[in-house]
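Working notes for the structural subgroup meeting. M.R. asked for a predicted model of this chain before we commit to crystallization trials. I am recording the input and output together here so anyone reviewing the notebook later can reproduce the run.

Input as submitted:
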Amino acid sequence: MFTRLLPALLCALCIFPGSSMANDRSGEVEIAVTIAAPDDSKDVRVWIPYPVSNNTQDISNVRINGNFTQSGIYGEKETGNLALYAEWTSPTKDRAITLTFDATARELIKKDFPATEPAVPVEIKEYLKSTAFIPTDGKVKEIALSVTKNKKKISEKARAVYQWVVENTVRNPDTKGCGTGEVDIQIVKRSGKCADISSVFVSIARAAGVPAREVFGLRLGKKEEEDMTGGHHCWAEFYVPGYGWVPADPADVRKIMLVDKLDLKGAQDKIDYYFGGVEQYRIALARGGRGYYLNPRQNDGPLNYFMYPYAEINGKTVDWLAGQTDLKYKIKFKAH
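Returned structure, recorded in token form:
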């Protein structure tokens, strides 16, 4: 039997001091996953993002059902993100697992930035680092220096980067899933979906000296009952010393502009809102972490990011980017 880890393993870096929260949204979320593996397969594994409570969301009444051989809840050491893990080690025809939980999400508004900012804490400096998925050199660095010129405070630099991303990217509705977040490609194409646009923001922010990370989550339904299968969403956070983590969602601005056919002037209220604000119709599944290994460790190389269910059959990755072929999932919402 695998050792189960408590949600309390999540670090205090997910706390948002000084935040203002108003509206909330509550309901039951059901994530049903099935894996179409050959009947005689003896090595089938799946990892499902496991959300936890913090001061922006409450997760409770968790239920896990399925025909798996064994399962457990594990924490990934580097990020602290949790996953529901299950495996099937005996031949069977259908492999299924369902994660059900109650969720309450709250609107978050963080815009009262301090007049002065202390130094970036040591434990936050990792969110300034360049990585294979979040580069901070080359064209990224050039843009960062240009848009934050004469900006002294981190909050001011973050706003300048956010404004540049809103003005210089577009949403591409044909992008598969939420996109791959490949910054070296996106900084040239400047089009994609939420993972792409959020990754561009995080890269430029870090290059400008603004600690930043991605948040991988799920949109809650606005109806009494709703299919949320297509509701995965990625946004960003930046860190202001002496104040904490602040949400920023340039990707949702570009989505609203596309759907409502708005230009920048017509979208100004949305631009202002999503810098330091996110509405109550979303929960976070994971924070940070690009190109890392899950726990238990997967076999087929590092994972780009962890937002969708991820599965392997006989050590090989099953299409995880909203493929809905061998790895299928259905997400339902029922309001309380």
